[in-house]
Structure formats: C-alpha cells, structure tokens
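Review form for a predicted model. The reviewer records the input and the model, then writes brief findings.
Reviewer: anonymous (R2)
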Amino acid sequence: MSTATTTSEQSQAPESSPRVLIAGGGLGGLFLGILLEKAGISYEIFERSPEIKSIGKFIHSTEHRNSPNILPAFEQMGLYEELLSFSKPLRGGGVMLTDKLEVISEVEPTPIDNGIRSGFISSSRVARHAVKQDPSSKLHMSKKVVSFEQDQDGVTLTFGDNTTARGDILVGADGANSAVHKHLYKTLEKKGLLPKADTREMNKGYISLVGTTEALDPERYPDVLKEDCQTRGIVGDGSNPYTNLLVQLGITEAAVEGVGSSDWVSQDNQKMLDEIRHFKTIYGTLGDLFDETRIEKVSKVYFEDMLFETWNHGRTILIGDAAHKLLSSTGAGAANAMQDAVILANHIYDIKPTSFVNIQAALDEYKEERFDKIKEQYPQSYMAAKLMYGHISAPFRITLWERIFRQVVFNWLPKSIQMNQLRKDSAYRPQANFLPEAPKRGTVDTISQQPSKRLQKEKEEEAKMKAAYVVAV
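Model under review:
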C-alpha cells in the first residue's frame, strides 16, 4: 500500500505537535484545517470528491445567515471583511406567507446590537473561500474512507484506492453519513462499548430540494439587482405538503425514494420537480424557476436529527453532522460545524507532549465543552420546524393547534422574550485561544473565552525563569 502522508511533511511539524488526519472537506473539516495551519500543527484533509471544485457540492445552493457565533473566529484569521464582501445584507426581518401568498406575519428587524451585519451568504462560497486558505499539498482528493485502525501508537486510515495515512488523531468531519462514524460505532458495538441510545436510527422528517438557477432576467426578477435581500417563507396548508421547498416524508412516492442519505445528492429529482411545478412563489410558479435551472444543479437532501452520545473513542473524534445532526430550521448546521472546529483546535493545541493519554484527555475535554451547547439547540430546532414547516402532527394537514401556535409566536409573543433569547443566542462566540482575540462587536454581553492551558503554562514557566534570573543576578 502507498501512504498519503510523506516523511518530509511530518518532519516540518514540531516534535510536540500531533499529526491530525481530517476525514471530510466540508466546512467543518476545511475550517479546522485553517485553524491548525495557524497553530503550526501538522494536518491533512482527505475528501472523497474527485476534484477541488466538487468540494461543497453537498451544500451547494444553500445559504445561512452571517452568524455572530462564528464570525469572530473568521476575524481572528483575517477573513472577516472578505467574507462579508460576498454576503447579501438582509432587508427587514422577513415575511411568512401561506401557499396562497397570504401574509401570516412580517417579522421586524432584530433590534439588538450584536455587532454583526445581518445577511445571507452561500455556503458553497464559504467552502470555496476556505479551500483557498488550506495549502493544496494538505488537501487530498478522491480519498473515500473505508476503515481505520487505532492503537497506543497512532491511527491508520485506509481509503478506497488502497492507500493509507498514519497520524496521531483522526477527526471525522465527513457529514451525517460519516464513514468514520459508521466504522467507529461498528467497532464499539462489537466490543459492547456503544450506548444503546446510539444504536437508534436517526429521526427523519423532511426532504429538501435545492438548486442554483442560471442568470435571471432582471426585468422579470427585479430583486436580483438589489444590493440587499429579504427572506420570504412559504408555508403549505390544507393538502399541500410543501413548505419552504421542503416536503414531509411519507407524503409522496418521490419523497421516500432513497431515504437514508443525509448528504446533498444529485439523484433523479425530475419526478419530484414535476410534482411541485405548480407551487406558487412571488415570482410566478416554481416551474418558472425550474426552467431556468440545469437538472445537474438540483440536489435532494433528507433532513434528519440525532444527538449522538458517543463523539470520541481513543484517538478518534467526530465533529459536525457526524456527531450531532440538527434539523435545518434554525440554519445552525454550518455554524455549529465551524464552532466545533474552533473548540477542537483549541484542545488539540493544548496537547503537549503528544502522548496517547494527553490525546484522550483533550478529546474528552472537547466533548465536555461542546455537548451541552449543542444539546441546548435541539428544542429550538424543533420549535422552529413547527413554525416554518408545519405538518408536524399529520402529513396532510396543519392542525388548529399549529395554526394558533404560529399566530401566537409570530404576532403575540412579547418582544422582551424574543430579545432575551436573541441575546442568549448571540453570547456564545468561541474563538481560537492561541490567536489574538478579535475585538468585541456590538453591545451584547458575550460568554468569556476559555484560555489556553498550554499558553498559561508557558507564561508561568517564563515568569519562573525571569524570577530565577533576577535572583541569580
């Protein structure tokens, strides 16, 4: 077998630095690579896609809001301004419509000052931007993980092309259908070490179709020329199963084909597209937009949710969707994967010397720091799904209770409650503790950053040496 990790690459890293193998070239894996590069830690990224331009295909066409929870880390690395340069400022707070285009509610702009310009950004654009930051020599394409073995001395990845890679830490950042996750759980289950809760199937609730149109005619679609954007959510009612271009599972034959795939995939989506051509939008019908979109640019994803209890074992750690799969209703998936990368990079940086015991301790501490933060988001994602998607109680209808719930939250909920939740959500802004801290933006109180144990120890040792020098002199 050949090996993907060369001796020259390993020798460039300090002896005390662990060698990190990252399976998955999505946002979490790429962002972790950038952080490790800044920290001077040896790493390699192994992506199953055949070429760099394919990276991010599983998130192509998706968008997420500029998040105050992750942008400070971008600012630390000098990427903040460039990131904002290709985002779209958000106009207003958004509008929620019925499938008949009747207004349910108009959400006001967020009045709290979190210091971040509210807007939307293409996840694929972020992924392409991240690719540029990782040296090409550390990014290996067409590397589909088949299995791995770990022991006291290291971890070895085996790929579908019969090559291997050897390192000290393996990070499974390869999505909800993570090969690292599957192999780890299979191994632990054979040994009787996998909790029963982690043997359950993931909850499946919705399918989403996403796509990117060709350049649109500004006369027909005047919003494309505007410098800002506005969100409009369309919620199906009655016998209409479609909400925000999501379909509840079990409703149509097309909706249940291929269930089990949680990555963005270009399957045979034409049948599903044909079923929803008549669906109304403010620009006409969905069919009008489909006619402006090449079929290869349309992907289908199955939204699932599951908070796994097992994130790490030995030298292996899972991040992003491989460890915790949230519904897309809060749009926090991409931000969470990158937050995972920040916190994990902090704990990897603190590993000194690189021993098996220290690695295990660091990965345990990472999970302990992140788990409750992720767990807090699950009730929010369920509530947001009820508000945005509907059809929670039954596939073919929205219940009276759900209509009332939506009316109360959108139109009657006291602003003070909404603001308190927004402040709480904006307070958590993890940063790389081995880089200069980004300046605070806005007036919202933020959670204090955990200092680096390694840097603290080095400062204490430096102070002792200075004190000893003064005494000697």
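Findings: The chain has one domain: 7-456.
Further findings: Confidence is low (pLDDT under 50) at residues 1-14, 53-65, 241-265, 391-397.
Recommendation: see findings above.
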